[in-house]
Amino acid sequence: MATAEPPASPASWKELLADRIDPDLGREIDIFETQLELRKQGKIEERLFAETRLRRGAYGQRYDNGQRHDGLVSQSLAFPDVPTKGPHTMWDAPGMQRIKIPLGRLTAAQLETLAEVAEDYSDGILHVTTRQDFQLHFVHIDDTPDLMRRLAAAGITTREACGNTVRNVTACPYVGVCTDESFDVTPYAHALTYFLLGHPDTQDFGRKFKVAFSGCADHACGLVHMHDLGYVARSRTGRDGTLERGFAVYLGGGLGSLPHQAKLVDDFMAEGEALPFAQALARVFARLGEKKNRGRARLKFLVEKLGFDELVRLVREERAKLPADARWTTFLDDLAKHEERPLKPGSTLGIGTFPAGFAAWSATNVRPQRQLGYSVVTITLPLGDLTAAQARALADIARRHCGDTIRTTVDQNIVLRWVPDAEAPAVYEALRDAGLASPGANTITDVTACPGTDTCKLGISSSRGLSSVLSEHLAKRELDPSVRRLQVKASGCFNACGQHHIADIGLLGVARKVGNHRVPHFQIVLGGETTRNAGAYGLAIGAVPSKRIPEAVDRITDLYARSKRPDETFQAFVQRIGKLKVKQLLEDLTVVGSHELESDLYSDWGDPREYTTGDMGVGECAGEVVPFVQFGLAASEREVFEAQMLLDAGQPSAAARRAFGAMLTAAQSLARTQNQDVSDEADVIVAEFRKHFHDTGLFHDPFAGDKFAQSLFRAHEASYDDVAPDVAHRQIEEASLFIDAAHACYTKMDTA
Question: Domain 616-752: which CATH class?
Answer without folding.
Answer: mainly alpha
